[in-house]
Write a structure and sequence with these properties.
single chain; alpha/beta; eight-stranded mixed barrel; 9 strands; globular; binds ligand C2E; binds magnesium ion; Diguanylate cyclase/phosphodiesterase with PAS/PAC and GAF sensor(S)
């Protein structure tokens, strides 16, 4: 055994480390059954027109209510689900649940030539889920099963989904576009995609990562970055959604720069299913304006 270096402090086992390790073990052990046990639910955050406040879409966000641990954040369990190769099942659950919920309200909306389009549904897709062969077929099956129109389904992928496996990404994108599903790049600006990628992989929208929005009032670099993304989007003729808008100052700044769509606590936190349904009911066929 190595002798203890007297110049270094003894590593003390703190109780909170024990708690963290136990929590991790419990999360790993329980994740596989969580959806089946009814502990997973979706909440929906409105995406609004920054000037009028009209809702153009909703982003579905997954929540895990653990009986002992309380709410476990997707930031914690989604990467784990990817590691444990459970993300495809979990992702299918999310897609089906979200499409079913939205179809239950807006399915009856008649789309006459003058009727405003019903709001879009944005669903997050993890990189592994997206790159797994057959993903587009899964989406197709869920659209068939729920009757939800493909054109209202917008999938959010991150830049890594496009970069990790170019051939599979190209194939999947082509298949999804053939279905009529739209693609948005989530957390745009934090990954490693380049102009060349955006050219090679046509997408329908970019979501500016909230880190840039948060720093809008604070540093010029963030302002320049956001301006650049807006210009890029105009050039490519794709939509832009600003994430994580918390203040009026941020909203006004974005509006002045010509950004139309945004989401964030300033407008609404993610809403429970019942509240979303109520909003959808009031909105559908009335004031909803689409994007993309
Ligand atoms: P994301 O897709 O970038 O989602 C935006 C996150 O920002 C959400 O956190 C949302 O609740 C939060 N947010 C919205 N507005 C504000 C704001 O004004 N201020 C701040 N500080 N935060 C705001 P959430 O729900 O914890 O989700 C975290 C991440 O987990 C998501 O980031 C997404 O990458 C992932 N995720 C969530 N649901 C799913 C899912 O169903 N499938 C997959 N694959 N990933 C998911
Ligand atoms: Mg997202
Ligand atoms: Mg995001
Ligand atoms: Mg994010």
């Amino acid at each position: 055994r190595a002798k203890r270096d007297p110049s270094r402090p003894v590593m003390v086992f703190r109780p909170e480390m024990h708690v963290a390790a136990l929590r991790q073990l419990q999360i790993e052990a329980d994740l596989p059954q969580a959806a089946r046990r009814g502990q997973m639910r979706l909440v929906y955050q409105p995406i609004v027109d920054l000037q009028s406040g009209v809702v153009g879409g909703y982003e579905a966000l997954l929540r895990w209510q653990h009986p002992q641990l309380g709410t476990v954040s997707p930031g914690e369990f989604v990467p784990l689900a990817e590691e444990l190769e459970m993300i495809s099942d979990l992702g299918s659950f999310v897609l089906e649940e979200a499409c079913r919920t939205f179809q239950s309200v807006s399915g009856g909306v008649t789309a006459g030539p003058d009727a405003p389009a019903a709001p879009a549904l944005q669903v997050n897709v993890s990189t592994r889920q997206f790159l797994r062969p057959g993903f587009a077929q899964v989406v197709c099956r869920i659209l068939d099963a729920t009757g939800f129109p493909a054109s209202r389904l917008h999938l959010e992928i991150t830049e890594s989904a496009l970069i990790l496996d170019l051939d599979e990404a190209a194939r999947t994108l082509t298949e999804l576009r053939a279905l009529g599903v739209r693609i948005h790049i989530d957390d745009f600006g934090t990954g490693h995609s380049s102009l060349a990628f955006l050219h090679r992989f046509p997408v329908d929208g970019l979501k500016i990562d909230r880190a840039f929005i948060a720093r809008l009032g604070e540093d010029q670099v963030s302002v320049k970055l956001v301006e650049t993304v807006l210009l890029l989007a105009r050039t490519l003729e794709v939509e832009v959604i600003a994430e994580g808008i918390e203040t009026r100052m941020q909203r006004d700044h974005l509006t002045r720069m010509g950004c139309r769509w945004g989401q964030g606590y300033l407008f609404s936190r993610p809403l429970e299913r019942a509240d979303t349904l109520a909003l959808l009911q009031a909105d559908c066929g009335a004031l909803a304006g689409p994007y993309g």
